[in-house]
Structure formats: C-alpha cells, structure tokens
Amino acid sequence: MEPTKPLTKNTRKKVTVTGNESNGEHMQENRNSRIAIAAYYKAQERGFQPGHELDDWLAAEVEVNNEYYQ
C-alpha cells in the first residue's frame, strides 16, 4: 500500500462503526494504518535506506499517539 497524501491533522478520517465491529477495534486498525503510513514517509524522506525500519516505526508511533491523545 503506497500512501498518496502526507499525514496531517486535517487528513484524519472520521469512522462510522456498523455491524459487529467495536469502536475500539476500528480505532486500533485506523491507528495502525496511520503509523504505517507515517513510517513509510519517514523511510521515503531518507531514501529507503535499510536498517532504520524500527526507528521509523517508533517515531511514527509517537507522532500518531500525540495526534490521538492530545
């Protein structure tokens, strides 16, 4: 999955939950997707050089957590 937009507060989607899915499950899935996209952009910024994947993921996780829990 290749993202097309940079992450900003304005790109956060509102999620409507239907059926058997709980809001918590949906939020976790959305959070993980946002982390993956942010990590991708971090890797892209440094030319996808190998060896920094965990650093990219952890930095993206902090970034997304700050958005969710402000």
From TrEMBL:
<feature type="region of interest" description="Disordered">
    <location>
        <begin position="1"/>
        <end position="27"/>
    </location>
</feature>
<dbReference type="InterPro" id="IPR021327">
    <property type="entry name" value="DUF2934"/>
</dbReference>
<protein>
    <recommendedName>
        <fullName>DUF2934 family protein</fullName>
    </recommendedName>
</protein>
<dbReference type="Pfam" id="PF11154">
    <property type="entry name" value="DUF2934"/>
</dbReference>
